[in-house]
């Protein structure tokens, strides 16, 4: 139940982030819905395609479509108030990537993949919805340019494979991983830590 | 036979719309061909990937590749005359999305998906070729910004699931759905109806 | 062994080309890695998805991830010296597309596809890593705009299906195809041959 609530909160947060980017581009109603939709389920869809898990997850469970549709309607109606909840949204979004990272890793383990591939799948699940959102809106994906985001997912993933070697139940490693991803992202934003940008020093 | 002719006309119309966008971007011969190709088969390809229907359809039937290649050659040779057939093209394109919507819904039903997912698949089949075309040409997809297009597909899809509850043969619902999609699109363009664009009213 | 060395050289060349494009866009460390990664494995991934060969190849063999990661670190450390090896890189890249074209064709044959689809798969394997790289960096893909690149792959693919009708071992056609792709690309660049750009002559 707790797991389910977090999952839905993550979807809502991702969908709202899609609505906000789409509104900045002045898209029409359908465009806003599609951007919200791909932001929320794009990462999981790419994960399912890569491991051959088809029909992809959101086609098998109608709850996702309805939650996203509801979120879009709500966000558009209250669009002038969205800025007041920006902080809560950031928190949902951060909880979302923590959870999605772990969900992706689990799928990778079930598919019998190596740890490094599981970590890649976790990162894809958490981050590529945002990447597809930015491509559809004709922007270079924001996670390639700034902010610790994917890096938090990768560090969480590495932690998981270290933690599960400890003589405790796997559930502890599971929860710890989610908290590590969330913690790294919160600290990075709080202290304005980001990855170095790379460019040539001589022309 | 009739079905087949419509299918080919739809592909031709989509391919020509790809050629016209690619020419505006002054792409080279290969670029024009690829854009025409993804416009014509992109929606169906994404549908096949999402439901795990691989190899995707156009890889199993060579007719698509040859029709598209022929259309590209024809369009380039007669590129200065294309504007005179713009109205016919619009009609083919509209017939194409009507047909593709129904084709996508059928695939969804065969894959045992819920109605809402079948409607999504129908809309993806009809619309995402154009979305991929616009992304490859570095534009925000036109269907996110203006025109009733995806909306016609969605309304047609909803109609199909209402109509098939009636005590008639499924073939009637099938044909009616195609006509509904075409009708909505024609009326929307005729009366310049479009979805509202969404943006924040306060800064 | 020889085959393996060429494969790795191709990956390294593609990854470095990704790093260079990503640096021009001043992406951060994660962005540079992802761009290098998709450039190197994007074409093969799309091929695997289209024919339903999942989990996709790079998820089954960890060597690819490590080679790409090593290449990215190396390229960033020596980024100011990269221009001195530009010529060698061009050669690796050209060898890479020759090899990838043939790899794609082989996958198509194994999947029982028609020759024209095998050629398409070979071209996709060789070229679409670069296409995805350019889309992620918000550019119209370079291979749609200039240079003989995909054309060399297509001509090589056609040659393969002609050559294997000759009464020799298939291995000769295999090697000849790779050399033909490489030869066409080298000649095209040497003599500045490119495909005509297509645009309307009247407004």
From TrEMBL, chains A, B, C:
<protein>
    <submittedName>
        <fullName>Trimeric intracellular cation channel family protein</fullName>
    </submittedName>
</protein>
<dbReference type="InterPro" id="IPR005115">
    <property type="entry name" value="Gly_transporter"/>
</dbReference>
<feature type="domain" description="Glycine transporter">
    <location>
        <begin position="5"/>
        <end position="79"/>
    </location>
</feature>
<keyword id="KW-0812">Transmembrane</keyword>
<feature type="transmembrane region" description="Helical">
    <location>
        <begin position="63"/>
        <end position="82"/>
    </location>
</feature>
<feature type="transmembrane region" description="Helical">
    <location>
        <begin position="148"/>
        <end position="166"/>
    </location>
</feature>
<dbReference type="Pfam" id="PF03458">
    <property type="entry name" value="Gly_transporter"/>
</dbReference>
<feature type="transmembrane region" description="Helical">
    <location>
        <begin position="30"/>
        <end position="51"/>
    </location>
</feature>
<keyword id="KW-1133">Transmembrane helix</keyword>
<feature type="transmembrane region" description="Helical">
    <location>
        <begin position="6"/>
        <end position="23"/>
    </location>
</feature>
<feature type="transmembrane region" description="Helical">
    <location>
        <begin position="172"/>
        <end position="193"/>
    </location>
</feature>
<feature type="transmembrane region" description="Helical">
    <location>
        <begin position="89"/>
        <end position="107"/>
    </location>
</feature>
<keyword id="KW-0472">Membrane</keyword>
<feature type="domain" description="Glycine transporter">
    <location>
        <begin position="91"/>
        <end position="164"/>
    </location>
</feature>
<keyword id="KW-1003">Cell membrane</keyword>
<feature type="transmembrane region" description="Helical">
    <location>
        <begin position="113"/>
        <end position="136"/>
    </location>
</feature>
<comment type="similarity">
    <text>Belongs to the UPF0126 family.</text>
</comment>
């Amino acid at each position: 139940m707790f797991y389910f609530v977090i999952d839905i909160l993550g979807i809502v947060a991702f969908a709202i982030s899609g609505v906000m980017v789409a509104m900045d581009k002045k898209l029409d109603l359908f465009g806003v819905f599609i951007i919200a939709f791909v932001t929320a389920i794009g990462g999981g869809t790419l994960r399912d395609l890569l491991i051959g898990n088809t029909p992809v997850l959101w086609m098998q469970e109608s709850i996702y479509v309805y939650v996203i549709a509801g979120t879009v309607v709500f966000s558009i109606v209250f669009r002038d108030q969205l800025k007041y909840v920006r902080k809560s949204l950031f928190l949902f979004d951060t909880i979302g990537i923590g959870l999605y990272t772990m969900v992706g890793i689990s799928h990778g383990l079930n598919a019998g993949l190596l740890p490094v591939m599981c970590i890649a799948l976790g990162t894809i699940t958490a981050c590529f919805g945002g990447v597809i959102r930015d491509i559809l809106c004709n922007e270079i994906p924001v996670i390639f340019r700034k902010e610790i985001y994917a890096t938090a997912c990768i560090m969480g993933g590495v932690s998981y494979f270290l933690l599960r070697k400890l003589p405790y139940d796997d559930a502890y490693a599971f929860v710890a991983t989610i908290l590590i991803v969330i913690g790294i992202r919160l600290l990075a934003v709080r202290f304005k830590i980001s990855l170095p940008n790379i460019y040539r020093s001589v022309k």
